[in-house]
Specification:
By secondary structure, the protein is mostly helical. The protein has a domain at about 40-125. It is built from 3 helices and no strands. The protein has helices at about 5-70, 70-85, 120-125. The model has no long low-confidence stretch (mean pLDDT about 90).
Length: about 130
Amino acid sequence: MNINNTMKLVFFIIGAGIVVSFLTIIQLNGLMNKVDEMAQVRYASYQTADELRQSSDDLTRLGRTYVVTGEEKYEKMYMDILAIRNGEKPRPINYHTIYWDLVLEYGQKPKPDGQAISLNQRMQDLGFT
């Protein structure tokens, strides 16, 4: 084998290595995108589960407050929480964070409304079993 053929073989191997490297990078990029999507779903699932916990706490608090005081505004807030959970009323933006603790008077909205979607539907969309 002469030097010319040897150099052709070396350049072919280097070229093949570059092609394999590019294909590997493209495949890794696709996998990283999938990992990012899965992380977003995981975080949204965490927020949804926390929203369920927070709304349950709020329902308990408002139910107890209504029983003790008899004020109609607490019953209305209780029913609003159920309506938001059922998708009958629009869900406030960032509802998974503190919301009802910021409401001082019935009808006051500390955060603007978003879309109306039930908590059950959100859980199904995120793949809850």
